[in-house]
Amino acid sequence: xxxxxxxxxxxxxxxxxxxxxxxxxxxxxxxxxxxxxxxxxxxxxxxxxxxxxxxxxxxxxxxxxxxxxxxxxxxxxxxxxxxxxxxxxxxxxxxxxxxxxxxxxxxxxxxxxxxxxxxxxxxxxxxxxxxxxxxxxxxxxxxxxxxxxxxxxxxxxxxxxxxxxxxxxxxxxxxxxxxxxxxx
Length: 184
Hints:
Number of helices: 7
Helix content: 40-55%
Oligomer: single chain
Strand order of the largest sheet: 1-2
Number of strands: 2
Order of helices and strands: EEHHHHHHH
Largest sheet: 2 strands, antiparallel
Distance between the termini: 74 Å
């Protein structure tokens, strides 16, 4: 038998001499009959194998239906996207959108123009990083159009045009932020 000796910090083996022990039957019990066969254990698992098979089948059916619906949805999305045509933004579409007083088209044309000038995609979320003044003007335009009391936006559109004309991606002054001065 293997055991650990903590004093020597190593594993040691203990051996005992072999002994034979004879056990005599009790005097008042009859001898067992070894000729009778032992009853076979019945394989009665109940309803669990059937329930497991049913749930496995339902799970596979769910996977199949999920795959089938995802294939159908992807076909629908591609057909809907292929039917949609995105309008081409013209160079003078900002002026056209301002004349039509269409704030959605004004914002789209502005973002497109800024993306062309800065050579990376400009969104309303990152507009404040690129030009805080333009972001403030856009916020004021949105408030004027979508606020409870619509106001005249002619002056805001003129400010927007002036700021867009002054916007130049090469000048550091346009892209300056509070942290830019800390990191030269």
